[in-house]
Amino acid sequence: MSDPEQWATFEEMGEDAVRTRLAENRYGPSTRPIVEEWLRRKDQERDVAVKREQISIARSTNAAVRDAADAARDAADEAKQAKTIAKIAIAIAAIATIISIIGIYSETIISIIGNFSAPPR
Questions:
Q1: pTM greater than 0.85 (yes/no)
Q2: What is the per-residue pLDDT across 74-83, written as a single tens digit (0 to 9) for each?
């Protein structure tokens, strides 16, 4: 039986069964190296699959981190704009307060100013 034929047999048996038979020394000296090579390749295939999955997870995580950083930058920009608008609103409110005070006390202020500017009688 050639290696590919034996490997097809191992595939049918499944990895666990082949490992069990190897541990029980059920393979002869000529078959044992073929079994060990097949198992080594199975381990290698599994390692490659695991590494691919890890890379995929890392890429997904990286993309999520980039998205979060973009969102944080956008939020910071919006906060700066809100702060600027709040400062302008405070200035307008202060001006409106001053105008209101002037309006409330305008007659008193005018009479005070009038008393200073009118010549004595």
A1: no
A2: 999 999 999 9
Between CA 101 and CA 11 the distance in angstroms is 93
Task: Identify the three-state secondary structure at position 29.
Answer: coil
Orientation angle between helical segments 32-104 and 106-117, nearest 10 degrees: 50
Q: How confident is the model at residue 116 (pLDDT cuts 50, 70, 90)?
A: low
Cα separation of 72 and 66, whole Å?
10
Residue 10 near residue 35 (C-beta atoms within 8 A): yes
Q: What are phi and psi of 119, to 5 degrees?
A: -70, 150
What is the band of 3 on the pLDDT scale with cuts at 50, 70, 90? confident
For residues 67, 71, 72, 73, the Cα torsion angle rounded to the nearest 10 degrees is 100
- Structure-token pair, residue 12: 């049918």
CA 108 to centroid of chain Cα atoms: 63
Q: In 10 A of CB 10, how many CB atoms?
A: 18
CA angle 40, 43, 44 (to 5 degrees): 85
